[in-house]
Batch of 2 targets.
Target 1
Amino acid sequence: MTDFIAGLPKCELHLHIEGTLEPELKFALAERNGIELPYSSVEDIRAAYSFDDLPSFLKIYYEGMEVLRTEPDFYDLAMAYLRRAASQNVRYAEIFFDPQAHTSRGVPFDLVIRGLRRALLDAERQLGIRAQLIMCFLRDFQAEYAMATLLESLPYREWIVGVGLDSDEKGNPPVKFRAVYERARQEGYLLTMHCDVDQENSVEHIRQAVEEIGVDRIDHGVNALEDQALVETIRERGLGLTVCPISNGYVTDSTKADAIRRMLDLGLRVTVNSDDPAYFAGYVQENLAVLAEELSLTEEDLVQLERNAFEITWLPRHLKDAYL
Ligand code: ES4
Ligand code: ZN
């Protein structure tokens, strides 16, 4: 099955570019930028990656970004990811970035997006992998800051396919960002947001995302299964769910494999993705392998998962069809 998964043309739809910062690159960027890291080796950094819930993960994730300062830093980050993805036969990726994680520490939006964009263009030419950017707002910051970030993004509108919402969900429901999402839609952005696994009020947050915000996709969204009516709406609208098994295993005590099996059986457009692969030790291939093992997936199941992913991409129809 490993060979089958390796050979399968794949699609990644839930990937935080800042979550692909491997310890080796972290060291290289620290040196280039004259930053002293509190670690003496790659092993040291990996050993410090001990988290067992979302807040403990997020703390390490944001601290790790300190080495990202210049346009070439963002270029190198994205290029390293795209090289890795291409080597796993990922043909297309939609990549989240967190501009506020950078602007909040004085790194300009323009530099972040230019570095990422340049990598996407080079990767398409050099590696044959296509990708688009999704801008995420940090939900634990004020809605006004998200709105300001949305406005700041408008000159780069053509480089961003949609918006998302991530970071700490506790006490930060979808409706906090109602006005931001309304404006984003008016500007022509497609809409997604995280409804992380097993959060306080998970089902209510998914309901808000679907019914009140009107998202085009849901990131995670596993807890929708607890509500029959919600499942029905998600199915009727053909909304995709970007699920991340290995990540689930870190921030909860389970990969939620059984839930993914049920979603497949219900005919929901569930997909398998990697979230923060440098931190959770697994890119899309490893996520598929873990799931295949746990659920004894057939080749047809794996094909279905990738079909779902290509089907829910935010590509124009003719480009999407080329993958299907
Ligand atoms: C994230 Cl696992 C997870 N949850 C919420 N926000 C995030 N940003 C990056 N990884
Ligand atoms: Zn995520």
Target 2
Amino acid sequence: MEDKCIFCQIAAKQIPTNAIYEDDHVIAFLDIRPSNPGHSLVVPKKHYETLLDMPEEEAVHLMKAVKHVAEGIVTAMNADGFNLLQNNKEAGYQLIPHSHFHVVPRFKNDGLQLGNIRQGNYKDEKEMKDVAAKIRELVKPVKDKEKESRESRERSEQSEHAEKDEKKEKKPRSRRLKKEDEFLIRREVELA
Ligand code: ZN
């Protein structure tokens, strides 16, 4: 806990809020200066400055809480839609340096303008492709736990059969590789 951090103080119940959800890791409460009634903040109880400082598991838990909170807000406020805002660092308009999500319920014609989103252009196709390639290199794949355990199960089954029947072992492996290749190619196309 950071002594001077207002969200740490809220998590420690040193500052009262109108809480709308709480569990071991997360607290959600009404923003005192709402963009619309019901506008809430969803905050990890531990102090992390930005989303990137959070361990992946905690970020996943936070996102689950955001979804549940958003469902509650939309239903309670009879909203027509909602926005999630998650700002990081001063350049990203983060006012309180403790990671958090805003959940803002939206109503048709509510006149709310959330920032002025500029929509520009890349210089040319090459610049866009270069930017995509540079980022793609650095994005770590999301680990799929179910898939991993299924594959390690398959691998151990295969090695059991390997000595008995070489053909059976080779076939599924090459099939699987092909599928992965197809997936990567599809992904490249989608990303391009
Ligand atoms: Zn804090």
